[in-house]
What does this fold into?
Amino acid sequence: MSGVLEHPDAAALLTIARTTVLEEILPALPETHRLTARMVANALGIAQRMIAVDPSRLTALEARATALVRSGQDPWAALCALIRSGQADPGTECHAAVASLLSDLAQLRCETSAPKTLAGG
It folds into this structure.
């Protein structure tokens, strides 16, 4: 399917836009507008990384959430309710599985929104 789509693809376009903002637009801006340009470049980087996420990772996380709550409702809302109710507190049967799921979800979110935090920078 990707062969029929335009080139460059969306991820590449976001990379080009981010590079343009940082290398061409930012240096030409007065100091009072540079923070705004950096925020735009950061948002473009986040969007590019979000597009690059393998959908199977999201599917696997959602499947794990669904298995934990076993309800017909939204698995993330049900997981929140489970946590709020205390049923996932330390010492409970599902605590380790919930903690592992939340850790993996946090890892993915950091990879997309704040990858420097994972590299210690």
